[in-house]
């Protein structure tokens, strides 16, 4: 699967967020390192140690993916029960995560879906202030990506079929295609000037979108706290 720019931004943001947890057994450089579910379980126990428990490191052997699968089945089961019993939300409204693809192939998109669930429950947990502050301490790009991620999960839980994730992926892809144009291939000054204006407009629109998204994020967190 080819990642969109928005998905790539989310991957970077989740890596940055995960590495802020002192409870993790080791820092990570890629999302693939979460495929054994060990660090994910460590983060979950940080969120609520009474509800979640750590999983064991799978052995390096041909059928090691089976233990990875069992690890993910366990934490996914606990996450869905936590959403139902503690948060009063219906996990059936969320996209299905292919746990086998994670365990066997460390499939990035599926790992991102799992990360989305974890950060969504983190900002709704009893210690949500701490996790929100962690997000706010990240780079603006990572804050934006994580707020989009949280908003997408909440929109599913609220029965909203509109997913900003896909919309932003499309917008980001358009911006990327514009920037990939090599100015040396044309001497058309008018076209280059028009393209420059389009990029400036896209930058302004993205900045406005970030501010609007941040405001909605704050309001969502206020509703959660109340």
TrEMBL record:
| Keyword Coiled coil appears in the UniProt entry | yes
**UniProt-listed CDD domains:** HkD_SF
Q: What residue spans carry the Low complexity bias annotation?
A: 169-178
Name the segments for region: Disordered. Answer: 162-187
Question: InterPro entries in the record, alphabetically?
Answer: CH_dom_sf, HOOK_N
Q: Name one Pfam family in it.
A: HOOK_N
List, in alphabetical order, the GO biological process terms annotated in this UniProt record: cytoplasmic microtubule organization; cytoskeleton-dependent intracellular transport
Instruction: Show the stretches that span the lipid bilayer.
Output: none
Q: Does the keyword Glycosyltransferase apply?
A: no
Protein name according to UniProt: HOOK N-terminal domain-containing protein
Q: Which residues form a coiled coil?
A: 189-216
Q: Give the residue range of the signal peptide.
A: none
What's a Gene Ontology MF term here?
Answer: dynein light intermediate chain binding
What cellular component GO annotations does this protein have? cytoplasm; microtubule organizing center
């Amino acid at each position: 699967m080819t990642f969109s720019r928005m998905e790539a931004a989310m991957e970077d943001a989740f890596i940055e967020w995960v590495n802020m947890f002192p409870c993790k057994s080791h820092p990570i450089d890629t999302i693939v390192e979460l495929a054994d579910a060990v660090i994910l379980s460590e983060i979950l126990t940080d969120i609520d140690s009474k509800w979640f428990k750590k999983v064991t490191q799978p052995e390096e052997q041909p059928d090691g993916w089976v233990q990875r699968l069992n690890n993910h089945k366990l934490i996914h089961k606990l996450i869905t029960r936590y959403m139902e019993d503690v948060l009063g939300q219906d996990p059936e409204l969320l996209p299905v995560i292919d746990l086998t693809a994670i365990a066997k192939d460390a499939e990035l998109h599926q790992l991102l879906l799992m990360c989305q669930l974890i950060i969504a429950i983190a900002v709704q947990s009893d210690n949500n202030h701490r996790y929100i502050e962690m997000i706010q301490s990240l780079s603006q790009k990572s804050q934006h990506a994580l707020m989009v991620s949280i908003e997408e999960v909440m929109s599913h839980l609220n029965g909203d079929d509109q997913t900003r994730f896909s919309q932003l992926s499309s917008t980001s892809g358009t911006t990327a295609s514009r920037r990939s144009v090599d100015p040396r291939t044309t001497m058309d000054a008018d076209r280059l000037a028009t393209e420059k204006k389009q990029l400036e407009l896209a930058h302004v629109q993205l900045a406005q979108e970030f501010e609007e998204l941040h405001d909605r994020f704050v309001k969502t967190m206020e509703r959660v706290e109340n």
